[in-house]
Structures are given as C-alpha cells and as structure tokens.
Amino acid sequence: MQKALRIYAGPAARRHIERHGLGPRDVRIIPGAAGGPKGLILGPLDRFIFGEWLAQSAHEVHLVGASIGAWRMATACLSDPAAAFARLEHDYIHQHYELPPGRKRPTAEQISREFGQSLQAFYGGRVAEVLSHTRYRLHIVTSRGRHLLRREHGLATPLGYLGAFVTNGVRRRALGAWLERMVFSTPGAALPFGTGDYRTRRAELSEANFKPALQASCSIPFVLQAVHDIPGAPRGAYWDGGITDYHLHLDYQAPADTAGQGAGLVLYPHFQKAVVPGWLDKGLKWRHAATPFLDPMIVLAPDPQWIRDQLPSGKLPDRTDFTRYGMDWRARAKAWGVATAASRQLAEEFAQWLERPDPGRIGPL
Fold it and tell me: What share of the chain is helix, strand, coil (3-state, %, to 5)?
C-alpha cells in the first residue's frame, strides 16, 4: 500500500527519537496552523492524538492555534475530544451560505454573522470546559491592526494591507508596524514561545472574549469582517491569526518539567513540510526554510505523491473549492468527505510508527 504519512523532525527532536523513541510525555506543545479547508485532512490525526495517545499521560500541554488551527486546538479542550473533532469535521464540510437576491457570492457581513452563529452552537455553554481543562493550555493567535488598520474601513483597510504587503516583502519584523500578534491564552498560562521575533501582546481568555477571539482568529480579511474591541484586550480591529503567523513558525520554548521527565518536544500535525511564518510569506520561498526555532519540532504531514494519487482532484481541500463547486455545495462536501476518509491512513500509520519509532522514516525539516 502507498504510504500516506511523512515524518520530519528538527535536530533536537530527531536526537531524542533516536535515543528514546517518542512517548506522550515527551510532547509539551502542539501547534495548529491556519490554512482553511486544508486542516480537514488532519481530523483523524487529531482524533487519535487527543482522543487516544495523549490520554495515556497526565502532563501539561500547550496548544497554539491560528484560524482553523485555533478552532481545532479549542476543540481538543472539550471533553470527549474525538467526538468533538468529528462534529467539527462534519460542520466544516457542510458549511454553505445562501446567496442574497441579486448577488453572486455571500457578503463578508453574512459570512461573519453565520460563522459566529456556528461557533455559538458549537461552544455554547462549554467555554468554561475549554478554559478550565486540567491539562491543556490554549493560546489563540489573532492579528491586531495598527494605524490604518486600527479600524476596518472601506478605503483605509485596502490601503493598510497594501502597505503591509510591501513592508513584509522587505522585512517580516517590519510587518509589525501594521499588524501585531495578539495571543489570547488560558488564564495564568505563560506563552510557550519567545516573542523577540515579532511585535506581540497577550491577553487572558475569559467567558466574555473566547468566542470573539476565536472568530477573529478565523476572520480572513475581505472575506469576513474584522472583530472589533474584544473584551479584555486593547481596542482595535482583529483579524485572522494566520496573517501574522500562518504556520506558527515560532521560537518554541516548552515550559520546564518540574518532575524532570519528558523531552519538551513540539508535535505538529500539519498539511505540508514547510512551516511558513506569515500569510504574506506564502510567495516568498526563501522564508519557507527551517530555522533553529524548529529544532524541537516533529511534523506529521501527508506525502505529496499520496495527495496526488489518492485525493479528489489530486490536491488537499482548499478555499478554491468554494469557487470550483460554486453553489453545488453538496458536491464540494462529497469531495471533502472522500479526502477526510482517506486521511484516516495518516492516523493509522502514525499509530503503527509509535509502536516502534523508526528514525529511518524521519526526514529533516
């Protein structure tokens, strides 16, 4: 059978696996990338990791997510995460928007309103469950606008994003003049990464700001509306966390294990090998390479040839499918369902590898 799973690791993570293998206790941080429908391919891995494998341990794990990755990581904090992930997968696959009369596509206001209703239905009455999880510390990444982007505006917002695009092309850190990284964290939880790379603020999650923060983290500019003035955080417009941190290429620093156990590794179920820093870096290939930030990281990703051979249209589900299938959302849902069913092979292969971790299957990041 054609292999579906590729495993990549930074130098520190590889050394640990060569000497000790990999156990649940070794994992201290799990990131969840932005990427919209691409995240669907990780559903079976999520169900296995959170529903079975990590359940064998009792240590603290930090979950860091942006956009759909934030939705996935928040879902992991619910009781019976396997069932919660199955519902997330179903709800995401079957999302569709009825067009207003005379329009060819839904408005940003409509998508934002209906998405907010979906989040309320999904987490309604369960926010305390997420924030009080005995083991998991959640960190939702958003992008807060500055200067021209401090409020959403018909003229200022496009000009602000043009400035952000140009500035980012010169230097990633300079993007902070337009957008800063704003992280909403479980109360009392320190950030599990350094912030010297980029302008960063932190606020604590609460019942009042959980849904606005999560919706902001998923709010793609010009597709959804910005979320303004989130309670407990600086005033301003908040957008998709993937703008500043597309794949969460962060300076990971796992908190010390007071028991002296575990390796402090970062386990990253991802949909590709490269960990791209920001959304505006997608076309800047020189920023796709690994850095020392990723030394303790293990990436689990689908094999590109398996994607081409086994998935509908030879690709991962992605946002272009909304255009490809148009109003025929049932055909899109069917294709996405086929892809997610095929991705069960990823979880099965990872479970098999964990029984006898073979360093020979690990490629460099």
Answer: 45, 20, 40
- Give the three-state DSSP class for 265: strand
pLDDT tens-digit readout, 223-276: 999 999 999 999 999 999 999 999 999 999 976 555 555 669 999 999 999 999
Domain that holds residue 240: 5-364
Q: Using alpha carbons only, what angle is made at residue 358 by residues 355 and 364, rounded to the nearest 5 degrees?
A: 130
Q: What is the dihedral of CA 69, 9, 170, 193, to 10 degrees?
A: 60
Q: Who's near 224: CB < 8 A, 6+ residues apart?
A: 108, 111, 112, 115, 215, 218, 240
Residue 142's φ and ψ, nearest 5 degrees, are -125, 170
Domain total of the chain: 1
Helix extents (H) in 21-107: 43-48, 68-76, 81-93
pLDDT in tens, 147-198: 999 999 999 999 999 999 999 999 999 999 999 999 999 999 999 999 999 9
